[in-house]
Specification:
The protein is of the alpha+beta class and 136 residues long. The protein has one domain (4-135): Nuclear Transport Factor 2, Chain: A. Helix content is 41%, strand content 42%. It has 3 helices and 6 strands. Strands 2-1-6-5-4-3 form a 6-stranded mixed sheet, covered by helices on one side. Strand 5 (112-122) and strand 6 form a beta hairpin. The longest helix has 37 residues, at 4-40. It is globular and about 40 Å long.
Length: 136
């Protein structure tokens, strides 16, 4: 028979070593899907990852907006700036488990935007929390 404390420590060890990999896999898929949505100019696909509120810093809109408002604002941004390509130049993790991504959006209109987005860890759930498009 295995002592109870050994069983508890073993279970804790497994959770602590496996769980970060599971979260990394989930956020990795989110980064891929969000990046594809940006490249395609698809605000609806981006909105799937929004939390209750989203911090937006894009031309003509800066502030914290609801999920539905954010989708409309981003849809408007993409209608004025049709994406031609999106490339991720850097991504990393923060201490709280959040993930940031920095990339470059090129548009059919000939503009280039530095893009930054943050996938935030809120109560063990990940949401697209912050989006920024800055004209270069």
């Amino acid at each position: 028979m295995i002592p109870r404390c050994l069983l508890i420590y073993s279970m804790a060890f497994v959770l602590l070593t496996v769980a970060p990999g599971v979260f990394a896999q989930d956020t990795g898929n989110m980064v891929r899907d969000i990046s594809r949505a940006i490249e395609r100019g698809n605000a609806r696909d981006m909105a799937r990852f929004f939390g209750t509120n989203v911090d937006l810093y894009i031309p003509r809109a800066e502030g914290t907006f609801s999920k539905s408002q954010s989708e409309i604002i981003i849809r408007d941004f993409f209608s004025r700036n049709t994406p031609a390509s999106f490339t991720v130049s850097r991504q990393g993790s923060m201490r709280d488990g959040s993930v940031y991504v920095i990339g470059r959006l090129s548009t059919n209109e000939g503009h280039s935007y530095r893009c930054y987005f943050l996938i935030k860890n809120i109560s063990q759930n990940f949401f697209l929390h912050h989006i920024q498009f800055e004209l270069q």
